[in-house]
């Protein structure tokens, strides 16, 4: 039984190690899909089909050069952000002030949900304590006295 557990552990460890062993073309595709072409077409860099795009070929060439230089993905993304501005990134890099772009939508959603729940609770508590003005409360439990008055007042 112990032998089987050790074999399963080795297979799992091998799988985890091999997940990071991708070829350079998959890395190129992954990094290229995390950037937006700066020609103002707002398309992913590697999918820019803008006819006569003046920027995509140059940017793809720069990406190839950066990857051949051996830089990490984060270093390459930072290089492009420094050269073209942060709008070149399809999603902000995690860290520093860019964390706000990841946290703010979640915080707004949670605050809106809690605020809506609080508002509904306040409305429910108010509506239960309200008594209509000008209509006396019926003295009998079934409300027959009030129904009779309403019937008399609504006859033609």
Features:
single chain, 156 residues, mainly alpha, Helicase, Ruva Protein, domain 3, 6 helices, elongated, metal ion binding, Cytochrome c-type biogenesis protein, CcmH/CycL/Ccl2/NrfF_N, heme
Count up the domains: 2
The top level CATH class name of the largest domain: Mainly Alpha
What is the count of DSSP helices, taking H or I runs of 4+ residues?
Answer: 6
C-alpha end-to-end distance:
91 Å
Instruction: Please compute the radius of gyration using only Cα atoms.
Output: 33 Å
Overall spatial form: elongated
Poorly predicted regions are: none
Q: What is the CATH topology descriptor of the largest domain?
A: Helicase, Ruva Protein, domain 3
Strand content: under 5%
The biggest beta sheet, please? none
What is the chain-wise order of helices and strands?
HHHHHH
Architecture (CATH level 2) name of the largest domain: Orthogonal Bundle
What's the β-strand tally? 0
CATH superfamily of the largest domain: Cytochrome C biogenesis protein
Helices and strands, with pairings:
Layout: H1 2-19, H2 24-32, H3 56-68, H4 73-84, H5 99-128, H6 144-153
Helix pairs in contact: 2-3
Overview of the structural elements:
This protein has 156 residues and is mainly alpha-helical. The chain folds into two domains: 23-93, Cytochrome C biogenesis protein (Helicase, Ruva Protein, domain 3); 99-153, no CATH class. Helices cover 59% and strands 0% of the residues. The protein contains six helices and no strands. It has helices spanning 2-19, 24-32, 56-68, 73-84, 99-128, 144-153. Helix 2 packs across helix 3 (56-68). The longest helix has 30 residues, at 99-128. The N and C termini lie far apart (91 Å). The relative contact order is 0.06.
């Amino acid at each position: 039984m112990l032998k089987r557990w050790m074999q399963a552990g080795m297979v799992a460890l091998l799988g985890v190690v091999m997940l990071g062993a991708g070829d350079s073309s998959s890395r190129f595709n992954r990094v290229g899909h995390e950037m937006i072409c700066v020609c103002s077409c707002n398309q992913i860099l590697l999918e820019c089909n803008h006819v006569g795009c003046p920027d995509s070929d140059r940017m793809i060439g720069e990406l190839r050069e950066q990857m051949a230089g051996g830089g990490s993905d984060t270093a390459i993304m930072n290089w492009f952000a420094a050269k073209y501005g942060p709008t070149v990134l399809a999603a902000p890099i995690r860290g520093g002030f860019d964390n706000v772009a990841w946290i703010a939508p979640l915080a707004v959603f949670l605050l809106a949900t809690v605020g809506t729940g609080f508002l509904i609770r306040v409305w429910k508590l108010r509506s239960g304590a309200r008594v209509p003005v000008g209509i006396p409360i019926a003295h009998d439990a079934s409300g027959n006295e009030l129904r009779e008055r309403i019937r008399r007042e609504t006859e033609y």
